[in-house]
Amino acid sequence: MQENQAPLISFQNVYKKIEGNLILKNITLDIFPHEIFGLIGASGAGKTTLLRCLIGFYKINSGNILYQEKNISKNQHLIRKIFGFGSQDNCFYEKLSLKENIKYFGRLYGLPDKEIEERAEHLLELVELSDVKHTLAKNLSGGMKRRLDLACSLVHSPQILILDEPTAGLDPTLRKHMWDLIVKINQAGTTVIVSSHLLSEIGHFCTRIGIINHGELLKVGPPDVLKEMYSRDEEIHLETYPGKYPQIVEEIKRQRLPVNYVTVHEHKMIAYTAQAEFVLHRILIILESMRERLLDVHVDKPSLNEVFAALTEKQKIKGMSEDTLMEYIRQARSRGYTQEQIRQNLLHQQWPEDVINAAMIKMM
């Protein structure tokens, strides 16, 4: 689909610093019409900052954000018109009824009274709150409040709906209900951008996802494609006692077993390899030599959780090299080298340009 379409939204080498901390690092991303794009990341990964930069709440330090090839920062009137935004915190007024809230936001957007009335009734029906439209918002349950917030963000018929953690704090049944509404809104023609830390559900409902961690966009693509990229490997899940996993990993490296990478979390080690049978046999020998008792073992294909873990593990390794880079820049500056001289030296040493840019902005 994307091959035949121009991007609706484009992030081009976007950097954002807040209070001296580099929050977004060289974000380059295209979002296409009519898709549900999911932004996956842990708390503090940069998801909310990215969305707030998109709607103009934050001014970016460098790069561009385009809407249909128009620079959003230079066309602020576009933001009010094309975006609907639902934050993690409810944005409606608790002392107004549901219908009064929707009508209030309709007036803020300058809609005619007749259209406001029609939109209010339509949206209350869409989010299945028509029966309680005269109830004060403060008396709603958590799930109903999320749906009211969704209705308020749609009152002006935005082309793009942005939802920041829309299912956070909801039980599984309410989360499913919320996602059903999001899909229904998307099927009516609205492009949806949604953030979440719940990998399993966002992977199920989104057409494409972007994985973000420590301000870096690690990978973008359809969920199935991302999993397929890693399914050339199989996962060997091991749980042992007393669980000397660092020593086990070191021994795997020392023996140069055909393992692409290893992650350790929740008292379990996961090894990614294209030769699962051979590697498992050798690991069992290692366990025996180290007097580790095997508690559980199974071989599986990667899930999105494992894809996320693998990508962030690779990022840690990259971060170690960035520490070396930062030290080089400090020393070069102390010797009187200019910014451009340092940049050219680093490019000559084959450092990636985006890594150099991130380090230099971080040290401004």
Give me a quick take on this structure.
Helix content is 43%, strand content 24%.
Describe this protein's structure.
The protein is of the alpha/beta class. It folds into three domains: 2-222, Rossmann fold (3-Layer(aba) Sandwich); 232-300, Alpha-Beta Plaits, CATH 3.30.70; 308-362. It contains 13 helices and 14 strands. It is globular, with a radius of gyration of 24 Å. The mean pLDDT is 87.
Topology:
Elements: E1 9-18, E2 21-31, E3 36-40, H1 47-54, E4 62-67, E5 70-71, H2 77-82, E6 83-86, H3 98-108, H4 113-126, H5 142-153, E7 160-164, H6 172-187, E8 191-196, H7 199-205, E9 208-213, E10 216-221, H8 223-230, E11 234-241, H9 245-254, E12 261-265, E13 268-273, H10 276-289, E14 293-300, H11 304-334, H12 339-348, H13 353-362
Parallel strand pairs: 3-8, 3-9, 6-7, 7-8
Antiparallel strand pairs: 1-2, 1-4, 4-5, 9-10, 11-13, 11-14, 12-13
How would you classify the helix and strand content by structural class? Answer: alpha/beta
**CATH class wording of the largest domain:** Alpha Beta
Percent helix range: 40-55%
- Write the CATH fold name of the largest domain: Rossmann fold
List its salient traits.
364 residues, alpha/beta, Rossmann fold, Alpha-Beta Plaits, six-stranded mixed sheet, four-stranded antiparallel sheet, 13 helices, 14 strands, 43% helix, 24% strand
